[in-house]
């Protein structure tokens, strides 16, 4: 990162939920690399401590960054309160909350009531409660970042719960931004498209070139995203450089959301491709 980027979050204290692997871990690494003290919140102590240790070995300390793992089930209000209390006891402040934790449990129209409630509890309700409780200790200039998704903006066969949760996240970002503005707290959502992650890795056998080749059909920039690119967008949105930005969704999606179902191709091209030759 540039010198400006490595100083962007100097002396800031951040919580990132769901940061023991994948995108959350990438976000935590970027924030620590920008100078923040990052609390990695999630389940899976071994994985969480490994992420924290990796950050410690990455050179983040040279710019003031560090990381610590806090084990917590974010569907438990008492666990959320313990996380915030630990951060305040350690640092005396909380400047940034990143609501990243996510469940992909979704069978579309076939999803049961229990599946709906369980996924929404992780993806939506827990982030809302974490924001509620974090706002009680945050100072003016603090920021809440919610992870949305392009999946919350378009229809898709076989899915319902996950996109519904992401659409709701984008909505509550607006509501919370209005509610917290008088306290000087900004709220922003970041919506990635297809991003290199454990789920994409599993579909490609760990071959990022294959992921890019498939992603090129749906992202004008010709590949899937990288977790650190999402992290850098979050670091910007959380910094003083974005001090006049609140209540909006920022698409970090390689152009995915600018395309319609025609994928940016003309009718002439599609008719020529799909109609059999006479």
Short description:
Pfam families: adh_short_C2 (PF13561). This protein has helices at residues 3-6, 22-33, 45-57, 77-91, 113-135, 161-180, 198-203, 208-215, 227-238, 267-274; strands spanning 13-17, 37-42, 66-71, 96-99, 143-147, 186-192, 249-252. It is of the alpha/beta class.
Low-confidence stretches: none
Shape: globular
Helix proportion: 40-55%
Biggest sheet, spatial arrangement of strands: 3-2-1-4-5-6-7
For the record, the CATH architecture stands as: 3-Layer(aba) Sandwich
CATH topology: Rossmann fold
Number of domains: 1
Keywords: Oxidoreductase
Family: Belongs to the short-chain dehydrogenases/reductases (SDR) family.
Organism: Azoarcus indigens
Protein name: NAD(P)-dependent dehydrogenase (Short-subunit alcohol dehydrogenase family)
Describe the model.
With 278 residues, the protein is of the alpha/beta class. The protein has one domain: Rossmann fold (3-Layer(aba) Sandwich). The protein has helices at residues 3-6, 22-33, 45-57, 77-91, 113-135, 161-180, 198-203, 208-215, 227-238, 267-274; strands at 13-17, 37-42, 66-71, 96-99, 143-147, 186-192, 249-252. A seven-stranded parallel sheet has the order 3-2-1-4-5-6-7, with helices on both faces. Helix 4 runs parallel beside helix 5. The model has no long low-confidence stretch (mean pLDDT 94).
């Amino acid at each position: 990162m540039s010198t400006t980027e490595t100083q962007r979050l100097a002396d800031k204290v951040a919580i990132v939920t769901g940061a023991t692997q994948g995108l959350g871990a990438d976000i935590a690494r970027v924030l620590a690399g920008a100078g923040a003290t990052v609390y990695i919140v999630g389940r899976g102590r071994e994985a969480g401590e490994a992420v924290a240790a990796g950050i410690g070995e990455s050179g983040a300390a040279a710019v003031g960054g560090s990381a610590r793992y806090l084990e917590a089930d974010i569907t438990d209000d008492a666990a959320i309160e313990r996380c915030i209390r630990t951060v305040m006891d350690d640092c005396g402040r909380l400047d940034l909350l990143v609501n990243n934790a996510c469940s992909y449990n979704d069978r579309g129209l076939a999803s049961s009531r229990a599946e709906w409630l369980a996924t929404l509890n992780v993806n939506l309700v827990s982030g809302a409660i974490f924001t509620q409780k974090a706002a009680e200790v945050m100072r003016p200039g603090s920021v809440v970042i919610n992870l949305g998704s392009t999946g919350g903006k378009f229809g898709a066969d076989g899915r319902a719960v996950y996109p519904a949760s992401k659409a709701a996240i984008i909505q509550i970002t607006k509501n919370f931004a209005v509610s917290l503005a008088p306290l000087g707290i900004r709220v922003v959502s970041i919506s990635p498209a297809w991003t290199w992650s454990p789920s994409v890795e599993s579909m490609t056998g760990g071959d990022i070139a294959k992921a890019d080749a498939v992603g090129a059909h749906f992202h004008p920039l010709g590949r899937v995203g990288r977790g650190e690119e999402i992290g850098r967008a979050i670091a910007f949105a959380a910094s003083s450089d974005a001090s006049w930005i609140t209540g909006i969704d920022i698409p970090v999606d390689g152009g995915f959301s600018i395309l319609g179902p025609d994928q940016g191709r003309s009718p002439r091209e599609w008719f020529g491709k799909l109609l059999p030759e006479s």
